[in-house]
């Protein structure tokens, strides 16, 4: 099962300040432990919302709002994507995330949908998509 470990933003992450070297070293060691265990699929930190935008959808209408966004506690500062056998295993990995300053923070754990979750029969094996025939015009061009 894949899980996304979502690191919530805080005023420091939204300020754009770089983390202290001790935190960077601790996070690197944690990431290396994830790699050695074979569970890490991806990990990224995000720049502050001031450097981003949101696109709001209302039917066919699109409205773009430039950052920053005021609701810091609802923003994402970064994430890990891991492969774990269960939610309990994912929780155990999150409990090991470094917090050298002892500050209050939060990491949300969410299971990622798998292809099998969308199968008509939940007990069915996932099907590989059929190869799509190339466009006849594109085929002649090669």
TrEMBL record:
Family (UniProt)? Belongs to the YciI family.
InterPro entries, alphabetically? Dimeric_a/b-barrel, YCII
What Gene3D superfamilies is this protein classified in?
Dimeric alpha+beta barrel
Where is the YCII-related domain positioned along the sequence?
A: 1-109
Give the organism the record lists: Lysobacter firmicutimachus
- Record protein name field: YciI family protein
Give positions of region: Disordered: 116-142
Q: Where is the composition biased (Basic and acidic residues)?
A: 125-142
